[in-house]
Amino acid sequence: MTAVIEVAGLSKRYRDTDALNDVSFSIEKDAVYGLLGRNGAGKTTLMSILTAQNFATSGRVRVFGEDPYENPRVLSRMCFVRESQKYPDDAKPSHAFAAARLFFPNWDADLAAELIEAFQIPVRRTIKKLSRGQLSAVGVVIGLASRAEVTFFDEPYLGLDAVARQIFYDRLLQDYSLHPRTIVLSSHLIDEVANLLERVIVLDGGRVVMDEDTDAVRERAATIVGDAAAVDAFCVGREVLHRETLGRVASVTILGALASEDRRSLADARLEVSPVSLQEFIVRSTQRAASAPTATAPEGALR
């Protein structure tokens, strides 16, 4: 496969804070990536640097084999839809779409019109008077209709209700299947977007803690539920990501694929086994990395 983005030893420091610390990875052409991590993990900083809207303290970034900074050959081939996008006070959605049509060479006006209708965007109302969901929809329309070779969506669904989010997911998949390109989707609703993602890159504390195919991640853990003594006996010698107990019943999430003989042992012990969702696996993994080995981490969700 061909890498469209290559990052090596990338760091970004704000005074006494390392937003990114020695980050390295590559992003391949024509694939949907999830850029995941809790609030403050460095996701937006990373995307800002990749799209030349921020500067790295050190390290190397190449997009289409070139440095993206002040490089129109590269920037015209990328689209960055960010949650905090700012517009002039008197700007309307129609102005934003007109500007996007001029900037993005692959702009699809028909797709934009369909999406505007689907999201019910009032194109002649000033953007500052739009609801948060309508403002998010403006960004979604630009991100999809731009058909840029690389598109970054930074928390694109904020403010969208469940129906509007599903419209976004459905149209993204539909258009991606017809017009493949590289899409990087940052989201904390991991389970909601999991079926869209072919590969996940997880940031935690400014570092890459996971960079794997989504299918491979799903196969790396399982949850065992049943009599606490039997569960604990089965888990001897295995890496435990999380453990909960209620009376004599235990639920343990273990790391590692289960072999056929493992499943027979579980059935013989009358223990239930279930797959771990992508969100749970990532949450448990980052909690484990941030906690002492014997500590019980609090519940939480990545952002």
List the helices and strands and how they pair.
Blueprint: E1 3-14, E2 17-28, E3 32-36, H1 43-50, E4 58-63, H2 72-75, E5 78-82, H3 93-103, H4 109-119, H5 132-145, E6 150-154, H6 162-178, E7 182-186, H7 190-193, E8 199-204, E9 207-213, H8 214-218, E10 221-227, H9 228-235, E11 239-246, E12 249-255, H10 260-268, E13 272-275, H11 278-290
Parallel strand pairs: 3-7, 3-8, 5-6, 6-7
Antiparallel strand pairs: 1-2, 1-4, 8-9, 10-12, 10-13, 11-12
Helix pairs in contact: 4-5
Task: Give a verbal description of the structure.
The protein has 303 residues and is an alpha/beta fold. The protein has 2 domains: 3-215, P-loop containing nucleotide triphosphate hydrolases (Rossmann fold, 3-Layer(aba) Sandwich), CATH 3.40.50; 219-290, Alpha-Beta Plaits (2-Layer Sandwich), CATH 3.30.70. Helix content is 34%, strand content 29%. The protein has 11 helices and 13 strands. The protein has helices spanning 43-50, 72-75, 93-103, 109-119, 132-145, 162-178, 190-193, 214-218, 228-235, 260-268, 278-290, and strands at residues 3-14, 17-28, 32-36, 58-63, 78-82, 150-154, 182-186, 199-204, 207-213, 221-227, 239-246, 249-255, 272-275. The strands form 3 sheets. The protein has a 6-stranded mixed beta sheet with strand order 5-6-7-3-8-9, with helices on both faces. Strand 8 and strand 9 (207-213) form a beta hairpin. The longest helix has 17 residues, at 162-178. The chain is globular and about 65 Å long. The two termini are 30 Å apart.
